Amino acid sequence: MTDDILKGYRRSIDNIDAALVCLLAERFKITQAVGAYKATSGLPAADPGREEAQIARLRQLSEDAELDPEFSEKFLRFIIDEVIRHHRAAAAR
């Protein structure tokens, strides 16, 4: 593998990482709006039924994309936990 080939791979990885950050930022903007809505509507911060459905859906998408579903579930659970933390903070305000 030449340095130019490695640089090309790394540029692609950097581009994907940038896209992931932008997507996560957009996702969290929306979930913050959901948290504010839940807080003003008296809804609970967590929705275990929705969370489990999302995890099942993501696991299936992962299998279809030939990505380790265990990894995907851990990733989504991390995001869900962070969203719930934000929702609880919004409710406490």
Please provide a written account of the structure.
It is elongated, with a radius of gyration of 17 Å. The protein has helices at residues 3-41, 48-64, 69-92. By secondary structure, the chain is an all-alpha fold. It has a single domain (3-92), classed as Chorismate mutase (Chorismate Mutase Domain, subunit A), CATH 1.20.59.10.
Q: CATH topology, which one? A: Chorismate Mutase Domain, subunit A
**pLDDT average, as an integer?**
95
**CATH C-level label:** Mainly Alpha
Q: Tell me about the largest β-sheet.
A: none
**Computed CA radius of gyration, to the nearest angstrom:** 17 Å
Q: What name goes with the CATH superfamily?
A: Chorismate mutase
Count helical runs: 3
List the quaternary state of the chains: single chain
Indicate the structural class: mainly alpha
Distance between the termini: 55 Å
InterPro entries: Chorismate_II_sf, Chorismate_mutase-related, CM_bact, CM_dom_sf, CM_II_prokaryot
Pfam family, one: CM_2
GO molecular function, one term: chorismate mutase activity
Domain Chorismate mutase: 1-91
Keyword list:
Chorismate Mutase Domain, subunit A; single chain; isomerase; CM_bact; mainly alpha; elongated; 0% strand; 93 residues; EC 5.4.99.5; CM_dom_sf
Write the layout of secondary structure elements.
Blueprint: H1 3-41, H2 48-64, H3 69-92
Helix pairs in contact: 1-3, 2-3
